[in-house]
Design brief:
Strand content: 15-25%
CATH superfamily: Class II aldolase/adducin N-terminal domain
Radius of gyration: 17 Å
Distance between the termini: 27 Å
Mean pLDDT: 91
Number of domains: 1
Helix content: 25-40%
Low-confidence stretches: 214-219
Number of strands: 8
Order of helices and strands: HEEEEHEHEHEEHHH
CATH topology: L-fuculose-1-phosphate Aldolase
């Protein structure tokens, strides 16, 4: 079986997404790039997480051709391949329907970078990409543009959260960092906070850049 380890890891990340309340059923999608072969392991379309085994994960190439698998790949295939095609630092992509992050996609406001512990995973405030039809090339393009060449996360308007990393674990930890940040901001505002100072977190981000380098934060 091609890319067995990556396919097994994707199954586990999917189960964690469900356990963490970031998806249910077959919502969202996950992929990982094998640099040696140039092939991508990616979740199937409309097949529930709790039923998936390694062999249910599809293997495609960068041109979106199905190389191995018994199911059709996720309809959001373009959302994944665009990052592997355009960014050499990205080797994993996680798209979830994280509820708190999605709130910011509904109101069209970026998630402000307010938590120092999230600074290692988030490269700053999380931008919101303009709305585009799910599954389209357009949604892939606007999300890529919003995240940019060195970002690690973006919210898709009225859709969900997308994070990237140099491996599946790092991409998923970035998902958790964005979702926790969104939740804290919502809670702070529910207690009457109108403005939340960003200086401490911005300082932490710049410190990470100096000490570890940009590549460490966008792994």
């Amino acid at each position: 079986m091609l890319l067995q380890t990556l396919r097994e890891q994707i199954v586990q990340i999917g189960l964690r997404m469900v356990e963490d309340g970031l998806a249910h059923g077959a919502q969202g999608n996950i992929s990982a790039l094998d640099v040696e072969t140039g092939l991508i392991a990616i979740t199937p379309s409309a097949y529930p997480y709790y039923l998936r085994k390694a062999e249910d994960i599809c293997v495609i190439d960068l041109q979106r051709n199905l190389i191995e698998g018994k199911w059709k790949p996720t309809s959001e295939i373009a959302l994944h391949t665009i990052f592997y095609q355009k960014r050499k630092d990205v080797r994993a992509v996680v798209h979830s329907h994280a509820p708190n992050s999605t709130v910011f996609g509904v109101i069209g406001e970026q998630i402000p970078a307010v938590l120092t512990e999230a600074a290692f995973y988030l490269t700053g405030s999380v931008p919101v990409a303009p709305y585009a039809c799910p599954g389209s090339d357009e949604v892939a393009e606007v999300t890529y543009a919003a995240m940019g060449e060195c970002g690690s996360a973006a919210v898709m308007a009225h859709h969900g959260l997308l994070t990237v990393g140099d491996n599946l674990e790092h991409a998923y930890e970035t998902t958790l960092a964005a979702e926790m940040t969104a939740r804290i901001v919502i809670m702070a505002r529910s207690m009457g906070a109108k403005e939340i100072p960003l200086d401490p977190v911005e300082g932490a981000i710049f410190r990470i850049i100096r000490e570890y380098g940009l590549a460490t934060r966008t792994r």
